[in-house]
Amino acid sequence: MAEKGISVSQLTLVTNENDSKPLVRAKQLPQYVAALSATLGALAFGGVLGWSTSGGDNGEKLAEQYNMTISTSDFSWIGSVTNLGSAAICIPMGLMMDAFGRKRSMLMLTVPYTIGWSLVIWANSVAMFCVGRFLLGFSGGGFCVSVAVYTAEIGEKTIRGRLGAFHELMLTSGILISYILGTLIPIYYLSITFAVVPLIFFTIFSFMPESPTYYLMKGREEEARASLLRVRGPKYDIEHELLLRKLVLAEEMRYQGSFLVAIKTKVARNGLIIAYGLMFFQQLSGVNAIVFYTGSIFGQNGAISTDASTIIVGALQVIATFTSLLIVDRLGRKVLLLASISAMTVGMLALGTYYYLEEKGVDVSSVNWIPLVSVCLFILMSSLGFGPIPFMMVGELFSPQIKGIAGSSACAFNWLMAFLVTRTFNDLVEAFGNYATFWMYSVICAIGVLFVIFIVPETKGKPLEQIQRELGAKISIPVDIKS
Hints:
24 helices, single chain, mainly alpha, globular, Growth Hormone, Chain: A, 2 domains, 76% helix
């Protein structure tokens, strides 16, 4: 590309010029339509994550409807293997998107989605369930990576954060829909219902434009121009934005050969400690055990029915995720993380205490609302902070030359931790009891409070250069935009 020699000063100049109001404002509706179309894949994955709850406390409903023997351990594998599939695709998905394009790679994910649901629908063994669920996780994890990239690259900066937030909102919405349908129809028909969603996604998203950034990466400038016009409107002057994107890509090209050097620096190590730590505490808090096995946690001792409790939890997750999108840039990351993990500690402590008293023979009928309130508090505060913010901060902690690999590896680590939690939950409950398991999660959350206080920086409103300096980088960037 001709722009490889462009300086940071020139990039800053174009950025400042681009901040001025264009003669014709970009249309936002095409951007919302493209982003919502892309996040239909996340809606489908939400159905995958919420599916296990419809299988019964320990898989008895699943075993009955499919007329097969499924042990508690088998059901743990069926529920948790999805996370292994998600971990397996995180890093390869980045390579696929650069090789085949964002749009084509996302459309390709429909294939493992369809095969996975087919195996689940017509399963005649635990092995078929596990292979099918692995493929579903493979596809869903691919969407977690690709949707964020696609929405960031098609959206203008004034609404880019909102477009990116659609993914988490659609994911939690899919979980809620799965919870609701699971109380109304057998799990077999629930599987068929969600098997249709990827096909709907494929049909709609086929008409959406490819990312203009991908076209520029391949030197296809006219196609990039046409793509931008589709999502900005035919009367919008795209030349400033197109030039800015070319300059950003040229700047990134300067860093491509310095990954091995950058990853050994103090700032990279600090960023990895924070990113991996946030992912560790997010998952080891037990959040995915709550999502996957909500029905078995409530059992028959709640103040209201298990089905109703599950739906309430799902609805709170959607509401809290939506609320988080509105306040995260006002209150800051660290404040929300601290409030979130503190409340999660209390929620798991209260839940464990309830089950401890119940197991010791204490009459808890007068306080049988505690499981619902504890789980609701946990889910509400998790979705406000420790649910969406770790993924958001991963994009803020790393320099351009390591952001791709470091971010993908943190995502893969997150799914591996999710697998560990969902696979071991039933085993821990059988070995130590409900109360000890939830107390363990509470202790981990309490350690997470200290991690947020002493390790995690506030990144709200700070440019990348300032964040890098606070993490230990020695940066000297020219700012003379007149040069």
